[in-house]
Amino acid sequence: MDDKIKDLLNEGLLEQTKYKGYQERIYTLYELRTSANNYSSKTPEEVRKFIKDKYAKIYNYPEEEIPVELIKEVYGSETKEIWAEVAGYKDKNYLVSNYGRIKHRPNKKEKYRLVFQDEDPKDLYKGYLKMKHYLNEPEFEFKGDKVNKCSYYFIVYGFFPALLDKKLDIHHINNNGYDCRPDNLILLEPREHSKAHGFFVFSDKNRNIEK
After folding, report:
1. Burial class of residue 156, CB neighbours in 10 A (0-12, 13-18, 19+)
2. What is the tens place of the pLDDT at every residue in 6-47?
3. Pair 152, 170: CB distance under 8 Å
4. 37-55 burial code (b ≥16 CB/10 A, e <16)
5. Whole-number pLDDT of residue 145
6. Phi, psi at 199, each rounded to 5°
7. How far apart are CA 99 and CA 56, in angstroms?
8. Residue 144 in contact with residue 131, Cβ under 8 Å?
9. Distance of alpha carbon 27 from its chain centroid, rounded?
10. Which site from 21, 30, 106, 165 is most exposed, i.e. has the minimal number of CB atoms within 10 Å?
């Protein structure tokens, strides 16, 4: 991409509306575009596999408490894991954590179980995690609309409840779909989401200028 096209893409982004992320952090569209540098579908497959395996150590960790050493290894952080109820989804039997983990219970009389997340084979190494089964009970498979919803939707239902009724897109700030911490998610208007990914927007139609 030459400098003229880059300038055109970035024109006005610093002055545009600022967007509020998790814990009131404010971003401009320019910041969102330039921060999406941690992961790309164009990255070689072996690198994408390495990134997935790294983050899976957290989102598929099989015990209740994640060791601090592991959190530091993956995220460079020591922030305590926080669980939130997924009150916005029609099924009230979910909990989600600020490290992208998910718990589910079959009904309100049973205990919550940790959920195994993975991609569909056709979307391998693209970062579209979905709930597959309980981590310690592979015979229990999620079915219906639960299978079709990506994991990040449930994280948003838990940590961004005030925005649930708005028709907004979910954007991964560092472009890494395996990093579903609420810190890495922000909700944008569809047009602004396209701009954050480096798309031109013409009359509500998007065109990737790199093609």
Report:
1. buried
2. 555 555 555 566 778 888 888 888 888 888 666 777 789 999
3. yes
4. eebeeeeeeeebeebbeeb
5. 61
6. -100, 145
7. 11
8. no
9. 17
10. 165
The model's pTM? 0.84
What are the φ and ψ backbone dihedral angles of 156, each rounded to 5 degrees? -65, -40
Which of 207, 211, 186 is closest to 195 using CA atoms?
Answer: 207
pLDDT digits (tens, 9 = 90+) for 111-164: 999 999 999 999 899 999 999 999 988 888 887 665 678 999 999 989 987 766
Residue entry with tokens 């926080």: 82
* Phi-psi category of residue 99: left, alpha or beta, with phi > 0 → left and psi -120 to 50 → alpha: alpha
Pairing of strands 19-20, 113-118: unpaired
List the one residue out of 140, 160, 171 whose CA is nearest residue 24. Answer: 160
Alpha-carbon span 12 to 91, nearest angstrom: 42
Rounded distance, CA 115 to CA 196, Å? 31
DSSP H or E segment with residue 84: strand 83-85
Here the tokens at position 60 are 């598929």
